[in-house]
Amino acid sequence: MIAVLPARSDVVGGDTVRALVAAEIRRALRSPLLWAGLAGSLAIVWWFDSDGAFTDPGAYGEHYAAWEFPVGPLAFVAFLVANGAALRDRPPPAADLLASTPARGWERTVGLLAGALVPTLMGLAVFGVQDTAVLAHGTAVLGDGPWVSTFEPALLELLGGPLAVACSWVAGIAVARLVRSRTVGAVLGFLGWALFSFDFYTFLYAPFGLFALSRSAVVAADLGSDPSPAQLAAHQAVGRPGDLVPGYLGLDRDLPSYALHLVFVVGVASLLAALALARSGRDRRTRPVGAVGLALVLLGLGGQVLTLDTDLGWLDPL
Amino acid sequence: MSPAVPWPVLLLASRRALAWRALAGTGVAALGLAALATVLPPAGAAQLPGLALLVLGCGLGATADDPTAALTAATPVTARRRLAARAVLALPVSAVTVGGVALLAAAGGVPPTAELVRSWVVLAVLALGAGAAGSRYGLPGALSATVLLGVVLVLQTTLPEAVRQAWPWDSTVERVVLGLLLAAVLLAGATRDPAARSLRSGAPGRRRARPRAAACRSAGRRSAASARRG
Asked: For the CA atoms of chain B, what is the radius of gyration?
């Protein structure tokens, strides 16, 4: 309905946009579903901590390599809450009433996008707790058997989860602006969340893994079933056969490629925001958002391809 | 109950109320996910049939949506019977899709087992229950089913081994029974007669409570005083 609302030629005042932003943030803060997602994410941090998931040696998918896993519930509900908020004006009478307010659809979408602040800060809180829990044990552990390395989580790694949550929120709004159905939004949200975020481990092979919105700084390389001692020594840690691939996995923390992954996530969020804004009405400020998003996506993807210290052949582990 | 409306007629009438597009969309998505099993290595492919079942379940939740509910609440056919009719129409479609998922997974080196069928049964009934519960409170059935199935996925993936092996659910049979029980409770609660509910709990249509005697007396005194004043 927003697409058919009358567009206003004059620019809506900054006060109106600020009021909308404040209102959407307040609404997000009052969402019980969002708080339930935060509780779920914190519960996973607690379970992982009590299981020694990050601080004991183990399989590839069960420790430091799954660093962003706990943010899954929060990312999921962030999509659903944002989708529901963006579809608030779905029934025709609501759209008609909103047409007489000072803000156009574009400004209302800006307000909704700003609501991402709430789940993003929640994601930061989850990772703050997780970081504190890991550091309380000393360090995070990567690898299995005799091939183990320890790491202190870098500051950069605290950003991945919150950014994934923010991207999920923005995706919820973009989907609502494309398909004005809560049913379609819920199903698409579940699919996207499972494929690109929560079940990213399933798709952590080239080239699928490059498009994951949630992953860790650990990069894997297939060492085959009978690696030489030199091959084993060339990596910071090694995973036993059976994780991701039948052979051994060489594991390394690769912070530069992780930083580029984060650039990619920010780019995707910007592109989705531009899509949502473009579907909410004409405004020349939409284009820079989309251009920046596209540039960041290309930079993130291209940079990862160039800097990843692993083979990027078809279905090689990442 | 509505003995006057035989099942074939009810099924025919329910055909138009069913969310066919949601069913078809999730069916295609589930088949697409299962087809990925033919591409991914075994460690990744093994996860895909389960994920496909969850996506199918999200679509089944939409079966609980009844766009005619506001009107048909006053008809002799109960909400429970109408939901059953829609489920009877939707479940065979979902079952055929599960067959496709199994075939594609087998082609990808993940042979289907009885576990797949068992999971589908439990997830389908849970999705119907969650969808019906959501519909009753004005939420799309697919949305509430998606939330429940998302919780199932998160719990299944992240619960510590010690919790997974706790006595109430440490065997497959117990988990299936618990899942079916939860679905039964959801379905029973969500398909209660809305009119019966409103009589008891105070929704529109309840009987007006009698005013307290003291309130009646004070109101009477006030009106008498105002009458004396003229």
From this structure: 24
